[in-house]
Amino acid sequence: MRVPYSWLREHVELDLPVQELAERLTLGGIEVDDIVRPTAGTRGVRVLEVTDVEPVEGSDKLHLVEATDGAETWQMVAGASNFGPGDRVPGALPGATLPGGLEVGRRTLFGHTSNGMLASQYELGLSDDHSGIWVLERDAPLGADLADWLDLDDPVLVLEVTPDRGYALSIHGLARDIAAIVGTEVHLPEPEAPQGDPGVPVTLHDTERCPRFDARRISRVTVGPSPAWLQRRLAAAGMRPVSNVVDATNHAMLETGNPVHAYDLATLAGPAIEVRTAHPGERLRTLDGVDRALDADDLVICDAQGPVALAGVMGGEATEISAGTSEVLLEVANFSPTTVLRTARRHGLHTEGSRRWEKAVPEEGVTLAATRAAGLIAETSGGEVTGGSDTHPRPRQRPTIHLRTRRAAARLGLDLSTDEQRGLLERIGCEVTEPARDEAAIDVTPPAYRPDLTLEADLHEEIARLHGYERVPEQVPSSGQVGRREPEHEARRAVRRSLAGGGWTEVMPFPFMAEDDLELFGLPAHDRRRQPIPLVNPLSKEEAVLRTTLLPGLLRVVRHNANRQVPDVGIFEVGRVFLAPVSDEPGADGGPDGVRLPAEPLLVGFAATGAFERPRYDRPARPADVFDLLGAVELVREAVGRGGMHVEPTEEAPYHPGRAARLSLDGVALGAVGELHPRVAEAAGVPPRTLVGELRLAPLVTGGVRSRVARHPSPLPGVRFDVAAVVDEAVPAAEVEAAVRAGAGPRLADLRLFDVYRGPSVGDGRKSLAYRVRIEDPERQLTDTDEQAAIDGVEEAVRDRVGGSLRR
């Protein structure tokens, strides 16, 4: 926001240099990014009256102009033609300087001497408008120095207003805050209630979204340019002057913080005003010339025939102010921040007004904004306020906050008494009372212009801000407690580190997908992932719903790389998916007002294609396969410190039958990994034999991340031997490994699967899994007898647990 310093000084007593004020504001929580003087340096520019205009012979654009400053007549050559005799204009006389250091002199054009130049707003640094000479009002002081008359040396503060300080988007809000921070007086105009019937009935159908609507009627209006002081002020504030009526509404918005909109009353059907949500099929052509299809959630202002404005966002083209407007109806309303935010996002239409609504504008400011806008329109257009109405069926009750002053002082680390805290809060307009039951507490009712103050913690922040953040002493926390992360956060960090260390590359796609993405995977109709949650205002069709699986984002990354001749990819993502709530799900009813919230499980997803191991001089490239994904799963398991998972074949979508595995832990399903089905790979535009997988992290981190306990190496040599277990084809390898571990006993130091064999020597429907076993004992040297006892134990466990035998 851009704030002219002179405008602030109209409402707050200030004798500070502007640089010191900027520093005090920044320390008070309102950051001043810059101080600019866009029109500084203007010297020797006077108000002249044009007495004669003649075309220059031999030129189709230039005009010979005679203009006087009341004491002397000057001849100039001008290229613009938007002025005539009797108009008062800014004239830069010989020796004058313009912003940027441009010095004006005499020059000859087509045989005529031009004694300086007539200036546009652009040349004076006021705006980007260079379409013609700036025509001033007829009563502009003839011969006056323009820099003195319009205070062109006035500095402008450029503010960065954070979302929690919406009140600072107005001159009045800033004036109140400056008065509180600096300790001076603020002077604000008094609101005037509407008088007389405007002849335009107002009906509010949704008082939650529009709790108040003030309508003012101004008659006998003459639309034209605004006076120079108003144009200069709006230009300094970063707004383009349009006309006296529109400029007055913008001035009122900048001053009070409450957006104002003006309608040409003659174009309103009825005339009547109705505030409601849009009906199916309704459309509105807004002031920017765009014909918009309205959504059923859009709040609209309607006349007797239909919508004439998007509430809080932009008016309609059919009712805009024009040169022929003679009667104006002002809309000064109050709208719900959420309503305006959704409408603005839905239509991709953000305006100065909508930005203010989104930060919450108090409904109590409506009357003052209407008073200021209506008064300025009447003053600058020669009109008269002939009626008004204020529809406000349910006035807002301001909250009262119980503030425990000892607690506030302790939390802030400040030695502030109850009286001192009370004084600070009263400086911003809080009403403070002391409850009889507690001497160390006060009841605080925040002022109407501060709807952001709702909690006791908000008052703590205000006390610190007004006392001065720079005066808060630096103290080392006295608590000996050390913070710790939640188990899920710790697991997420551990998994990311482990996978990255294992050679996988982390990616972070957007958490959105196209609804059509789910059709690619061939998921069964009952699968919960087929019910995505749509976005209210999606960025595009490809990102229209919240993801229910990580696979679409991972496949987009694979496709992006493949299209750019990067064939070897091994990526992972740790992120959340969003599943529509079901009534029997734990925590499904945990939202506000009984709204069921979606489940947001944390998953880790993988995708790989091409060569997982690149070729070297001593070996060829090795294509990625499902065992690489199982290796990644093993890295995840080790990172969180959990025991072995159960792995079994699966034919579920979207995997290739026979080349995928389902994973579980203690009977709880974790996910699956495998090669993408060829049809899915082709439809997704990724290379054949692309491998993907997903794994739920929550079951793995129950009870937190478990530290890995290092095994102390035995000082004595161990014994290594191989065993081959023959089992039925249907028996999962994980069950065989568990049997071998159990049979080897407590001396087991290491166990590795090194071969899988199927063939005539083991019989049809059978397979042989060969393991390398190492046992050791730190207390004594193992013997052949110990080795044989371990082999016998393995044989017994394989026979009893999985119905197998050892190959001899």
UniProtKB/TrEMBL annotation:
Q: Which residues form the B5 domain?
A: 396-474
According to the lineage, what is the superkingdom? Bacteria
Q: What is its EC number?
A: 6.1.1.20
Show the stretches that span the lipid bilayer. Answer: none
Question: What broad class of enzyme is this?
Answer: ligase
**Location in or out of the cell:** Cytoplasm
Q: Where is the TRNA-binding domain?
A: 39-147
Concerning InterPro entries, the annotation shows: aa-tRNA-synth_II/BPL/LPL (IPR045864), B3/B4_tRNA-bd (IPR005146), DNA-bd_dom_put_sf (IPR009061), Fdx_antiC-bd (IPR005121), Fdx_antiC-bd_sf (IPR036690), NA-bd_OB-fold (IPR012340), Phe-tRNA-ligase_IIc_bsu (IPR045060), Phe-tRNA-ligase_IIc_bsu_bact (IPR004532)
UniProt: Mg(2+) binding residues: 452, 458, 461-462
For this protein, what does the record note about how its cofactor is bound? Binds 2 magnesium ions per tetramer.
User: What does the record give as the reaction this protein catalyses?
Assistant: tRNA(Phe) + L-phenylalanine + ATP = L-phenylalanyl-tRNA(Phe) + AMP + diphosphate + H(+)
**GO CC entries:** phenylalanine-tRNA ligase complex
Which BP terms does GO give this entry? phenylalanyl-tRNA aminoacylation
- PANTHER family per record: PHENYLALANINE--TRNA LIGASE BETA SUBUNIT (PTHR10947:SF0), PHENYLALANYL-TRNA SYNTHETASE BETA CHAIN AND LEUCINE-RICH REPEAT-CONTAINING PROTEIN 47 (PTHR10947)
**Designated name of the protein:** Phenylalanine--tRNA ligase beta subunit
Report the gene name.
pheT
